[in-house]
């Protein structure tokens, strides 16, 4: 399973877009310029790329001549000249509106890739963003009930909360030496309120506090509790939007993406990048085999996109059933949530 967005991109290539026996041409970067973090490689402004010639045949080296696009990480580079003696390519950086970046020695160089990493990364972001509201993340927060509303002030995190699914409170504290058998957890009614962003309020200590969210939804969230005394600890389970992705190092757990959602993302990404383009025969055959392993038959290469979308829809429906089983829809009256029983 994947732990980061980069891992999920790699898994999508591995399981859908790059058959192991397909004849893709690869080599590695051998530049030794000084880059960040005391590492060596290609600087963000360098225009001379050196590569490991031992990994390429003569025919594959010829592909690196002027006019070819190569890819290192998410950057596309346009070759303008090839020196096969020194294994050096002269390049134009940041081709096709990609961003010129530093690349470490040993980074993979793909020659004229049929599916670029930047396109797959962007598709992963698109697929995660479109999961909501059909699917959603969840988060449990421990909040002390207050007199009036309680502002949730975790900057650039609480603003992704959408609605409470359930709330419970421990009416008898597990204090040292107490009789734990008399403790009870009971459902609590709660309302979530959208406040302006930024929002200033006076806290219990009489200090003015301003909450400002700079990324994500443009709202500050607050809670209003009903049927519970001030100061009691309440555990609230929230429905939550998936957080924004910043780069490939973003972890899946930090954005709220569960492991079971990965196949949904990968099927959607494959359908998105295959749309309106000729599919290499090896890739079409590979995807058909992968879907057969998942007991979902696919048709000819021309209908692969539709088959992938149908498979994605099936996976989403299964995930929705799981969410409904774990989090029964609460009853909401006048915006107040009464926990489901």
User: In terms of structural class, how would the helical and strand content be classed?
Assistant: alpha+beta
From the structure provided, what is the oligomeric state, counting identical versus distinct chains? single chain
Helix content: 10-25%
Number of helices: 7
Distance between the termini: 34 Å
The poorly predicted ranges are none
Indicate the mean pLDDT. 87
Q: In angstroms, what is the radius of gyration?
A: 26 Å
SS elements, strand count: 20
* SSE pattern, N- to C-terminal: HEEEEHEEEEEHEEEEEEEEEHHHHEE
Provide the domain count. Answer: 3
Neighbour order of strands in the largest sheet: 1-9-5-6-7-4
Q: Could you please describe the fold and organization of this structure?
A:
- The chain is α+β, with helices and mostly antiparallel strands and 341 residues long.
- The protein has three domains: 1-22 and 114-135 and 247-328, no CATH class; 25-113, Thrombin, subunit H (Beta Barrel); 137-241, no CATH class.
- The chain contains seven helices and 20 strands.
- It has helices at residues 5-17, 58-62, 117-129, 252-255, 262-274, 281-293, 304-326; strands at residues 26-28, 33-35, 39-42, 48-50, 69-72, 75-83, 88-95, 103-104, 108-111, 137-144, 149-152, 161-170, 185-187, 189-195, 199-202, 208-211, 220-226, 233-240, 331-333, 336-338.
- Helix 1 packs across helix 3 (117-129), helix 1 packs across helix 5 and helix 3 (117-129) crosses helix 5 (262-274).
- The mean pLDDT is 87.
Question: What's the quick description here?
Answer:
It is built from seven helices and 20 strands.
